[in-house]
Amino acid sequence: MARPEGLYCAAGDFYIDPWRPVERAVITHAHSDHARFGHRHYLASRPGANVLLSRLPGIALQTLAYGERLAIGGTVVSLHPAGHVLGSAQVRIEHAGRVWVASGDYKLDPDPTCDAFEPVRCETFITESTFGLPIYRWDPPQNVFDGIDSWWRHNAAEGRASVLFCYSFGKAQRVLASVDAGIGPIFCHGAVEPLNRAYRDAGVPLPPVRLVSEIERKDKAMFRQALIVAPPSAQGSAWLKRFGDYSDAFASGWMRLRGARRRRGVDRGFVLSDHADWPSLQSAIQATEAGRVIVTHGSVEPMVRWLREQGLEAGAFETQYGDDTVEADAAVADQTASAQDSDVASHAPAEQADERIDRIDRIDQPETRDESIPGANTS
Ligand SMILES: [Zn+2]
Ligand SMILES: [Zn+2]
């Protein structure tokens, strides 16, 4: 059930992705709106341990392999792949013969950097709904990466750098693992590198990637054939000057919205998301065979309405899970902490602009108010 601290399981006395400090937290994945500092005990998936510890160093972390069962209070808890980012997990809770599953964030599309989403049968399914509107339908990822490759190839042929903005954890590694590394050298921003390292340490193969800051500032020629992967917060910053002539692009599910593309002001928008699109949300929910579905974040109302039309019991929990904005902030924090780049200070205005844009983008979507539906909070 929903408490001010987060989603709470009374039978096991633990929280899932709490946003206020608690005694015992089960973490679905290391994105900063789901994994926060301040809890006494953390439980998360073993494949996600590297990334989680790189973002929250020093936490008291216990890990479970996917599918491994652990008794907590009167419950049995296990974690199952969510296909969202490395280590992302759905939380299965069994209590008195009843099964609940909390999805965290998830996607069904193939992703070489993490385990595929596993449908888990349950009576009650708690689902995200970030892109829970019929307008959100993703092309097959291979088509999107072909598009990124041809944009990069074209720029390289013209002697122009290709700067791709995407979130530093998850999206960046998925892009790195999926583009054609034979087109030219690949560089990344200082905020992306610690995540690359955590992925490699976890055994995820990524192509060789160099840090932009290793290259002398006047050495612009180094970047003419290159793909440069940078967080959205780098957009509009002085950091970009070193590339000379460049084309820029943004990879995000929000690029599906024309207004978002326009306001981003980039040359290209690639529609690439680590969340399930509308058809995938529906098929994932159906695969659980749940009779009751609770929607957490994103387009809550349209999803609840659709679920009720399917004859399911449906409601909403109000949560503080956000979307990409928080991620962009985290990227800046990471970068400031690592201080690998001398342009850190100049990123602050870009970051603010970023937040503003993300807020405007949300207004673009009809019917996305986060509204709790009374009567749903029964657990
Ligand atoms: Zn996430
Ligand atoms: Zn989320």
TrEMBL record:
InterPro entries referenced in this protein's UniProt entry, alphabetically: MBL (IPR050698), RibonucZ/Hydroxyglut_hydro (IPR036866), Xnuc_lig_assoc (IPR026360)
Keywords, ordered alphabetically: Exonuclease, Hydrolase, Ligase, Nuclease
EC number(s) from the headed UniProt entry: 3.1.-.-
Entry annotated with the keyword Glycoprotein: no
Span list, region Disordered: 334-379
Enzyme class label: hydrolase
GO MF assignments: exonuclease activity; ligase activity
Ranges of Low complexity composition bias in the record: 334-346
Domain of life, source organism: Bacteria
Basic and acidic residues bias: start-end ranges: 353-372
Gene3D superfamilies for the chain: Ribonuclease Z/Hydroxyacylglutathione hydrolase-like (3.60.15.10)
Name by which UniProt lists this protein: Ligase-associated DNA damage response exonuclease
Protein source organism: Paraburkholderia dilworthii
